[in-house]
Specification:
Structural class: mainly alpha
Number of helices: 13
Shape: elongated
Oligomer: single chain
Length: 232
């Protein structure tokens, strides 16, 4: 049955499993000591097998050739959300990265959210692929990507670069300016603002206007009480 599944069907299944937080065994388990522990262990093993089979199917060249941007972003987002750091997941990430880097036309169709999900997934799984990040940085500053970019896409994309220590001054400058665009302030949250400031500080990017304006936002009487200790 799986051999007839389209790339979109497979990525949708992975996305749904991640949304439902299907349990996965991300490392080897010690043998259960009691029968009561066996059922969860079998469930995790079964879910892991399903995810592995889905990933392997997606890597078949005929399936990859039909894959659109959302297939890659949904699948990688799902693996990261499931915190799946097993060998097959890392192999899948590396293989899909090579595919994307070989197809500029495909990357050019990515929305800002597609790019954000791919970047976030790599950072969450601690996969440092500078070539892929450089390619997506060039795309994110394009008029096509900026047209649909949201505060969340800006923040989580820059968080991914900072988390992995991958520098991209032009990207940070461009997305920082987009973040401050008139009309976006109603999308701000203490969390999004603090993450943006952290990402810039983490890579040593001093952007005075961003730090001044967003520090003022965090100090507002209607914002400060909502900010967590971590945000501040």
């Amino acid at each position: 049955m799986l051999k007839h599944a389209s790339a979109q069907n497979v990525s949708n299944t992975l996305w749904a499993m991640a949304k439902l937080r299907a349990p996965l065994a991300t490392r080897s388990r010690t043998p259960p000591q009691e029968d009561a522990e066996e059922a969860p262990g079998r469930q995790e093993s079964g879910q892991r097998h399903v995810v592995q089979r889905l990933c392997e199917h997606l890597l078949h060249p005929p399936v990859l050739r039909e894959a659109e941007a959302q297939v890659f972003s949904n699948s990688l987002w799902a693996l990261a959300t499931l915190d799946c750091k097993l060998p097959f997941a890392l192999l899948f990430c590396n293989a899909t990265s090579r595919w994307l880097l070989s197809d500029d036309a495909l990357v050019d169709t990515f929305t800002a959210q597609n790019a954000k999900d791919v970047l976030w997934a790599h950072a969450k799984l601690s996969i440092r692929n500078e070539e892929l990040f450089e390619r997506l940085a060039r795309h994110l500053v394009s008029s096509f990507a900026l047209r649909s970019i949201t505060v969340e896409s800006i923040v989580m994309s820059l968080w991914a670069y900072a988390s992995l220590g991958i520098e991209s001054p032009t990207l940070f400058r461009t997305l920082g300016q987009a973040f401050l665009q008139a009309g976006r302030s109603d999308e701000y949250t203490p969390r999004s603002v603090s993450l943006l400031l952290w990402a810039n500080a983490r890579l040593g990017y001093l952007q005075p206007r961003i730090f001044v304006e967003l520090s003022r936002y965090l100090a507002r009487a209607d914002v400060l009480p909502c900010a967590s200790k971590q945000d501040m």
